[in-house]
Amino acid sequence: MYMHDVNFWMANNSIQAFEMVSSTQYNSEALDLICIGFGVTALSLAVALHEKKSLDNALFLETQPQSSWKPYPDIPSERLRTSFLNDLITSENPRSRFTFMNYLHATNRLIVYANSSRITPSRELFAEYLRWCADNLHVRKEFSKKVDKIVPVKNSTGRVSSWKVFFVDVATGKLEVAEAKQVICATEPEPRVPAILSQAHVRPVVAHSTETLEVVPASLKRTGGRGRIAIVGDGQSAAEVFDYVQSIRGDHQTIWYTRENVFRTSDGSPFLQDVVRQPATSAARILPAELRRQALDLRSSEVDDELLRTIYDSQYRQSVKQSDPSKWQHQIKVGRELTSAERMTGDKVVLGFKTSGDEERHTDSYDLVIAATGFVKTDHQAIMQQLFELVEGPGISVDRNYQVNFRSGMLARGCGLWLQGSIGEANNDDEAVFPTLAERSRRAVESIVQQRQQPSESSVEERSARL
């Protein structure tokens, strides 16, 4: 997929390496804006830019061959766990044509949705809404373009006046470069699989929770419906996968291993949402929206109360028929930490666990292992590696408007770099993602537009938030 010279660049951290190797100039004139990514985060930014009439002369680069527009994350639950009002724009401009409500009206689905009496839309319908927004935005986007590096371009005074974004055409391996004064890094989190389950000899039998809807039916078909499935992980994602697998009729066995000793219900109360969306203190208002929940010390392993009750009821029904929990078809093993994974002859893997609080070890074999272990937000680190010598502090940090904090005097007027989608924990809970999506896009876009109109140095107070 990658050419030899691209591998060389990835191994070489110097800016000079980029300048020495030839590449195709994507556009002879500098663009106003380049956005890295075209997932849900970037789509929300595109809508916000459209609202400000600032979408012209912008380029969006996406690694995937096309956007599937699946609500983040893709887990078996049929419905989102958040209100339809938490779409791409409603909370910031309810009159926008890109609201979920207007989408329903434009596609002749408003009455049908209203008659369903559900405030939470189905994932399939919301994915259609996202696709509709992308199709109706006049935005310049390129798919199958993997961004490799962002390289600063300095003017005669030594200040950074623009950015060169180097990217590879995934299909052809051809290297290209585009230049812009403003860049947004809006890559989506990537599925995380623990190192133990990522070993080459084990990985073919392991799937991430985002692949559940594809791999589970395939595994059951391969084993004649009698396979053994292990789920490793904590929190909402693992609970939804477990509930989905046990709902499938058949003779398969499911065992969920979690490090938690007791499950905790999530706090989705209106009071909590108000604190996150409309903080009362100035310190909380300065924080980027997704960091407010983290500041409240909310646990990422919480599970929706209704789902917990459903799972408990299913466990209770098994206990009525069989008093020995080790003989249940669908089991939950709490306080278990994964310690080993070894491939057996054939398509089976042996997992090893230790019990919290003692040295007891437990091993068992499975036909499929599902890692409900969340996501990682590290793509931006490799892309921005060339910029570390320019930033303020030991690593990448952002201000309240998601603009990267560079050392004073490093950037020329009108030049800026923003980071979104990579702040805070890689939470796999859409309840935490969508309520703040429109606000964070509005903050970044207002900063971008203001910089174009009245470029000036930001104050210390405005740049106090940190990643």
How does the SSE layout of this entry go?
Elements: H1 4-11, H2 15-20, E1 24-25, E2 31-36, H3 40-51, E3 58-61, H4 100-106, H5 110-116, H6 123-136, E4 140-142, E5 145-154, E6 160-169, E7 175-185, E8 190-191, E9 206-208, H7 212-222, E10 228-233, H8 235-246, E11 253-257, H9 270-277, H10 282-286, H11 289-295, H12 305-321, E12 330-333, E13 336-343, E14 349-355, E15 361-366, E16 368-372, E17 375-376, H13 379-383, E18 416-419, H14 430-453
Parallel strand pairs: 1-7, 2-3, 2-7, 3-4, 7-18, 9-16, 10-11, 10-16, 11-12
Antiparallel strand pairs: 5-6, 6-7, 8-17, 13-14, 14-15
Helix pairs in contact: 3-14, 8-12
Biased composition (Polar residues): 448-458
Family: Belongs to the lysine N(6)-hydroxylase/L-ornithine N(5)-oxygenase family.
Region (Disordered): 444-467
Concise account of the structure shown:
The chain is of the alpha/beta class. Helices cover 31% and strands 21% of the residues.
Your description of this structure?
This protein is of the alpha/beta class. The chain has 2 domains: 4-190 and 376-463, FAD/NAD(P)-binding domain (3-Layer(bba) Sandwich), CATH 3.50.50.60; 193-264 and 300-373, FAD/NAD(P)-binding domain, CATH 3.50.50. The chain contains 14 helices and 18 strands. Strands 1, 2, 3, 4, 5, 6, 7 and 18 form an 8-stranded mixed sheet that branches. A 5-stranded parallel sheet has the order 9-16-10-11-12, covered by helices on one side. The longest helix has 24 residues, at 430-453. It is globular.
